[in-house]
Amino acid sequence: SSGINAEYGTHVLCFYYTIMPLYQLVTASRSDPDRDWFKSKYIALLQCTLTVVTTVVCWAVALYNGHVKVWPIPMISHCGVYPPEKYIFSIGLVCAAALMFMFIWIVETAGKIYSSRTTAWALGFPCSIGLMVLAVCNCEEEPTLHYIGAISYFVGFAVWCLLCSFKELSLEDEEKDVWVFVRKALAVFISIFTFIMLALFLVFKQKWQEGWIPLCEWGAVICSELFVGTFFFDLGDEYFIEQVKVPSHKLRHYNEVEDDLFCVE
């Protein structure tokens, strides 16, 4: 258990030292020392880039070391089973899962897609947690947790994309935004790949070595990251995550107002 705890601790430290330099890189400086701005579009860019780079690098390292073959096409999870690629797989996708959590929150509050807290909590955030679980739990060492995480990620994200994309009708009418139509197409492809993959695996009991299940999995991941990537262009330079330092005298005023409201109730 001490070895597992040490490995989890390593994941946390690597996450911190990965995110902080990226944060400093893309944070826009402002003259006001009490305000810190961060362009929202960079979260989408970082999330899709990190996921794609991690997946491709793990596949290349696993292929180089003879852990997978070019054909049959390996499952993505099989590219993160043995060292050294399993460390890249875990660390990279844990960071990507954290960015996915932030991405879901950003797009649900930006008004660029159908916005609903229920949708985010029921589908969006669980898919982020699923990605983190499948990254940490090896499909050979902890298969049950790994596949629970994988199903949560793929199904949760597919349904979230469908629901959000096909409730963007008001945005189509108001903005005539091309990205709305692009996301509709990608959401359909994500769902087709995801549910065909699950049907082949769970219903028809097809072996992954036949190639169709991995093909659907890679297709679902590629379309998912393209879906996320559209928001880099769609959010543009108009949306920011802002952290504001509230002066102490204003903070005391806010607390007094809250106390008064509480007393009235």
Helices, strands, pairings?
Layout: H1 2-26, E1 27-28, E2 35-39, H2 41-64, H3 85-109, H4 117-136, H5 143-165, H6 169-175, H7 178-203, H8 212-235, E3 240-244, H9 248-264
Antiparallel strand pairs: 1-2, 2-3
Helix pairs in contact: 1-3, 2-3, 2-8, 3-4, 4-5, 5-7, 5-8, 7-8
Give an overview of the whole structure:
Helix 2 runs antiparallel to helix 3 and helix 4 runs antiparallel to helix 5. This protein is mainly α and 265 residues long. The N and C termini lie far apart (50 Å). The protein is globular, with a radius of gyration of 21 Å. A 3-stranded antiparallel beta sheet has the order 1-2-3. The C terminus is likely disordered. It has 9 helices and 3 strands, in the order αββαααααααβα.
Fill in the keyword field for this structure:
single chain, 265 residues, mainly alpha, 3-stranded antiparallel sheet, 72% helix, globular
Mean pLDDT: 83
Q: If you compute it from the alpha carbons, what radius of gyration comes out, rounded to the nearest whole angstrom?
A: 21 Å
Could you list the spans in which at least 5 consecutive residues all have pLDDT below 50?
Answer: 260-265
Beta-strand content bin: under 5%
Number of helical elements = 9
Query: Helicity range of the residues?
Result: over 70%
- The strands making up the biggest β-sheet line up spatially as 1-2-3
Strand-pairing-aware structural class: mainly alpha
Straight-line distance between termini: 50 Å
**How would you sum up the major sheet?**
3 strands, antiparallel
The best one-word shape is: globular
Number of strands: 3
Order of helices and strands: HEEHHHHHHHEH
